[in-house]
Amino acid sequence: MISFLGLCVKNFIQTMKYILGGNAKISDIIAKAAMISYDSIPIALSIVFIAAVVIALQISKQFLMSGAESYVGGFLAVALVRELAPGFAALAISARAGTAISAEIANMQVTSQVDAIKTLKVDPVGYYFAPRIIAGGFTVPMIVILAELFGILGGMIISYVTIGLHPNRYMSSVWQWLNTRDIYISILKGFIFGIIIPLVCATQGYETTGGAKGVGISTTQAAIKATVFLLMADLIVTLLFYIDPM
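Above: the chain sequence. Below: its structure as tokens.
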């Protein structure tokens, strides 16, 4: 895992040189943005919505029993914006788009398409990685924001259905508990996750050997490694912004 992290850093630096050299094409970025984020919207929003509904079901009656039902919205909103929406949305995108990225580049590697790019004196790392990393970095935060809105909406619906909590009281606690700092940090998480997913998955695909069997192994490894690196990044961001130094 340490050596793979080194490969990721090396490829990221090489990709940044490619981007700063003005070689990335807007048309490629738009196409990859559609593949990474737009096509992942249904699954990402569905997962976050269901997670919010389940949490609201678990806490609403408990809050009602203690006379704190008006805090359901605030509690759920903080949990969603700080952790659940960025994390679940990123994992959904990784499972759907990240594995596709790895399989695509792995297939190019084992069929010698990467070698063909090299003969044209084009940097294959920059050519394959740049549009995907740019697209992920810009579009995943948008999915995170949508997921937060859908999650809060799901919590509001289930709170009204289960304990009769009026939407006005629910939204009032949301605005009282949330602050703009939480939203900014969730966007930052989305940006970081949007870079990590294509970087890790493309790196895994680029290192593929062994023909069709190797493509399958790389796809599985990409899903595992992307999940590990996403959770590590989430931990680091949380430590930096939410843990006060002693």
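Residues 51 and 63 are 18 Å apart (CA to CA).
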